[in-house]
C-alpha cells in the first residue's frame, strides 16, 4: 500500500497566478492555491477565476495598515515594535501607533496636584442666574475660576470646612457630613481650652488639666481649713 509522505498545493507568485488561473484553468471547487510571495491562501469554487476569489481569512480579522500593525512573512507585530526603545509604550495617534517614554516630572503645579488628589479644596458658592439656582466650587474666595466637578472626588469648602461630593444624577453638591452644633449631630471640633463654643468638645488633655486645677484648688482649700482649725 502506497504511503503519501508529502502533499503540495498549487502555488506561485500572485501576479502569475492571476494571469494563468483563468477560464478553463480556473481553480477547481475546493482546490487550495497558495501565493508564495504574499503567504496568502485562496480556495477555488469552480466558478470564478483566481483573481476574483477571496482570500481565506482567520477567525480574527486584523486591519494591517502599516501604521498600527505590521505584517512580515506571515507574522504580525505592533507597528515599529522592533525599533522601539525599551521602556516605551504604544500610543494611538491620527498617524497610527507612536512609541512614547513614560515621563515623570520633577514637580507638579497646584492644578496638577488637584487633579490627582481625591479631596479638592475650594470655595463653595451658590448663586442665581436667569431665575435658576446654581452652585459651584471656586478656586478663589472671590469666585472667579470654577472647579470642574467630577463624581469620584470629595470637595472641602475652605470657608465652612464642610465636605461635599458631586452627584451626577442631580448635578448638585451633596454635603457629606454636617458640622455639629448644639442642635445638629455631626463632626465636632476638639478644643484645647475652655470656652463657650457649641460646635465641639474639649480634648482629653484639656479636660485632665481642668480636673487637676479643681483638685489642686480643693486640696489648697482643705489645707487652709486645717490651718484655721489648728489656730483656733
Walk me through what this model shows.
This protein is 18% helix and 30% strand. The chain is built from three helices and 14 strands. It is elongated, with a radius of gyration of 41 Å. By secondary structure, the chain is α/β, with parallel strands linked by helices. It has helices at residues 14-20, 110-116, 204-231, and strands at 10-12, 32-35, 40-43, 69-72, 75-78, 88-93, 96-101, 119-129, 132-138, 154-157, 163-167, 172-177, 189-191, 200-202. Among the domains are: 10-52, no CATH class; 69-101, no CATH class; 110-177, no CATH class. The N and C termini lie far apart (141 Å).
Strand content: 25-35%
Please identify the structural class as seen in this structure.
Answer: alpha/beta
Largest sheet: 5 strands, mixed
Total DSSP E strands: 14
Q: In percent, how helical is the residue content?
A: 10-25%
Amino acid at each position: 500500500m502506497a504511503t503519501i509522505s508529502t502533499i503540495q498545493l498549487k502555488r506561485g507568485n500572485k501576479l502569475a497566478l492571476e494571469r494563468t488561473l483563468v477560464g478553463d484553468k480556473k481553480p477547481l471547487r475546493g482546490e487550495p492555491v497558495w501565493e508564495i510571495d504574499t503567504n496568502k491562501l485562496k480556495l477555488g469554487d469552480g466558478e470564478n477565476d483566481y483573481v476574483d476569489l477571496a482570500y481565506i481569512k482567520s477567525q480574527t480579522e486584523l486591519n494591517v495598515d502599516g501604521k498600527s500593525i505590521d505584517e512580515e512573512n506571515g507574522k504580525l507585530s505592533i507597528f515599529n515594535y522592533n525599533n522601539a526603545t525599551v521602556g516605551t509604550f504604544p500610543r494611538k495617534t491620527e498617524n497610527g501607533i507612536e512609541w512614547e517614554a513614560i515621563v515623570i516630572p520633577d514637580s507638579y503645579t497646584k492644578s496638577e496636584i488637584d487633579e490627582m488628589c481625591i479631596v479638592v479644596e475650594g470655595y463653595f458658592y451658590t448663586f442665581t442666574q436667569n431665575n435658576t439656582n446654581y452652585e459651584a466650587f471656586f478656586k478663589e474666595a472671590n469666585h472667579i475660576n470654577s472647579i470642574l466637578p467630577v463624581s469620584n472626588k470629595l470637595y472641602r469648602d475652605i470657608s465652612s470646612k464642610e465636605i461635599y461630593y458631586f452627584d451626577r444624577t442631580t448635578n448638585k453638591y451633596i454635603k457629606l457630613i454636617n458640622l455639629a452644633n448644639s442642635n445638629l449631630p455631626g463632626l465636632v471640633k476638639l478644643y484645647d481650652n475652655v470656652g463657650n463654643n457649641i460646635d465641639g468638645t474639649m480634648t482629653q488633655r484639656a479636660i485632665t488639666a481642668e480636673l487637676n486645677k479643681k483638685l489642686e484648688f480643693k486640696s489648697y482649700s482643705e489645707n487652709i481649713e486645717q490651718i484655721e482649725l489648728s489656730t483656733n
